[in-house]
Write a structure and sequence with these properties.
Blueprint (H helix, E strand, L loop, with lengths): L7 H52 L3 E6 L4 E4 L5 E2 L5 E6 L3 E3 L3 E6 L5 E2 L2 E5 L4 E6 L6 E3 L1
Antiparallel strand pairs: 1-2, 1-6, 2-3, 4-5, 4-8, 6-7, 8-9, 9-10
């Protein structure tokens, strides 16, 4: 008659399978984290610009979102700047000045709803996201 329970071999096989699955899951989620940080940074920057546009239209005065390309931070007028995650880089493609990758870049939102600024690109080692500004109607499009 056989004793009830598991053999040592069965327990070792199950523990090995659990370890393998957990290891693969960690690799998968570890690779997904930089993409999530990039998406969050793009959403936050575009939300800040939409808020500046709303303030400009509601208050009847021009608002400026200043992007500091060197310190990778941005803010509305003189407010406390927000900083991008360490692995996220930023550059601007201005219609007049071309590619800008250093210094301060102002994005002006006028009371009429129009905007002065170029395409803002956020990227990391995996992919890039563009934030396009429509100068006529002031829309902010994340692609």
């Amino acid at each position: 008659m056989r004793n009830a329970g598991f053999t040592l071999l069965e327990i070792i096989v199950v523990i090995t399978l659990i370890t393998l699955v957990l290891g693969l899951t960690t690799l998968f989620f570890g690779n997904a984290l930089p993409g999530a940080r990039l998406n969050a940074a793009a959403r936050e920057l575009s939300a800040t610009m939409r808020y500046a546009r709303m303030l400009a239209r509601n208050n009847g005065e021009t608002r400026t979102v200043t992007i500091d390309l060197d310190s990778r931070s941005y803010g509305i007028d003189q407010s406390e700047p927000k900083t991008l995650p360490e692995d996220v880089r930023i550059r601007v493609n201005d219609n007049i000045s071309g590619d800008i990758s250093s210094g301060n870049y102002p994005v002006l939102f006028h009371e009429s709803g129009t905007v002065e600024g170029g395409t803002i690109t956020l990227w990391n080692s995996k992919r890039a996201i563009n934030i396009e500004l429509d100068p006529l109607i002031g829309s902010i499009i994340v692609k």
